[in-house]
């Protein structure tokens, strides 16, 4: 069989890409860290923020009854897009908000545990509220509502605190950690604990 490129063989099977999974509340600094990671990591990486997926949606007004379903489907599509990019061999930096338990459970079923570096991006509530007021583009109190839920699963490969550390320092800390990530990964441990229905292969 000849493929569309005129060569007799198809494309090579891709090795799974690495997923640097940044989890933290709104305004915790995830996107800033992701941008810096793209500057300091040696291999090519794609930054995939969920905000970009929300921005793709049409501006049509929706009812309060419609909105939860639309948001859930957006998150589910985002997770599958990340999984697809990684499965094709691309390295990905994801910024995420695990403020609802189902989001983590969904990701645990989609991503190869050995490919995920789970990063906790922490920040004090006082500083989060200050940033939220300064930004002016987030609903008031959003970070406070997410604060307790986001880190409730309690396990990371590496954590950084943006209360005092800048995005550049956090990115370098993560970069330096990547070559020495232990096994099993935090994602693998969470998968074994929270999704025993899955066979752990990563």
Tell me about this structure.
There is one protein chain. With 202 residues, the chain is an alpha/beta fold. The protein has one domain (19-194): P-loop containing nucleotide triphosphate hydrolases (Rossmann fold, 3-Layer(aba) Sandwich). Helices cover 44% and strands 13% of the residues. It contains 8 helices and 5 strands; from the N terminus they run βαβααβαβααβαα. Helix 5 (125-135) runs antiparallel to helix 6. The longest helix has 21 residues, at 67-87. The two termini are 32 Å apart.
Summarize the structure.
By secondary structure, the chain is α/β, with parallel strands linked by helices. The protein is 44% helix and 13% strand.
Which key features would you list for this structure?
disordered N terminus, single chain, alpha/beta, Rossmann fold, 5-stranded parallel β-sheet, 202 residues
Describe the secondary structure blueprint for this structure:
Elements: E1 19-23, H1 30-40, E2 45-49, H2 50-56, H3 67-87, E3 91-96, H4 101-110, E4 116-122, H5 125-135, H6 142-150, E5 158-161, H7 167-177, H8 186-194
Q: In which range does the helix fraction lie?
A: 40-55%
CATH-level-2 architecture: 3-Layer(aba) Sandwich
What is the CATH first-level class name?
Answer: Alpha Beta
**What's the overall average pLDDT, rounded?**
91
Radius of gyration: 18 Å
Structural class, by secondary structure, is alpha/beta
Number of strands: 5
Sequence stretches where pLDDT stays below 50 over 5 or more residues: 1-8
Q: Report how far the terminal alpha carbons are from each other.
A: 32 Å
Number of helices: 8
The best one-word shape is globular
Give me the strand/helix succession: EHEHHEHEHHEHH
Main sheet properties? 5 strands, parallel
Tell me the CATH superfamily. Answer: P-loop containing nucleotide triphosphate hydrolases
Strand content: 5-15%
CATH fold description? Rossmann fold
Q: Strand arrangement, largest sheet?
A: 2-3-1-4-5
Counting structural domains, the number is 1
């Amino acid at each position: 069989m000849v493929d569309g490129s005129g060569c007799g063989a198809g494309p090579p099977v891709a090795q799974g890409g690495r997923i640097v999974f940044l989890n933290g509340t709104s305004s915790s600094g995830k996107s800033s860290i992701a941008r810096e990671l793209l500057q300091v990591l040696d291999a090519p990486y794609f930054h995939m923020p969920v905000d970009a997926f929300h921005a793709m949606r049409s501006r049509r007004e929706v009812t309060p009854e419609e909105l939860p379903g639309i948001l859930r489907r957006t998150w589910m599509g985002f997770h599958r897009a990340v999984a697809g990019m990684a499965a094709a061999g691309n390295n990905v930096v994801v910024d995420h908000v695990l403020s609802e338990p189902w989001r983590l459970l969904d990701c645990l079923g989609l991503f190869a545990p050995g490919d995920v570096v789970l990063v906790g991006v922490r920040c004090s509530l006082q500083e989060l509220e200050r940033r939220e007021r300064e930004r002016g583009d987030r609903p008031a109190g959003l970070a406070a509502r997410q604060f307790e839920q986001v880190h409730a699963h309690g396990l990371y490969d590496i954590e950084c605190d943006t209360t005092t550390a800048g995005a550049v320092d956090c990115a370098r800390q993560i970069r330096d950690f990547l070559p020495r990530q232990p096994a099993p990964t935090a994602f693998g441990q969470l998968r074994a604990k929270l999704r025993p229905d899955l066979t752990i292969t990563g």
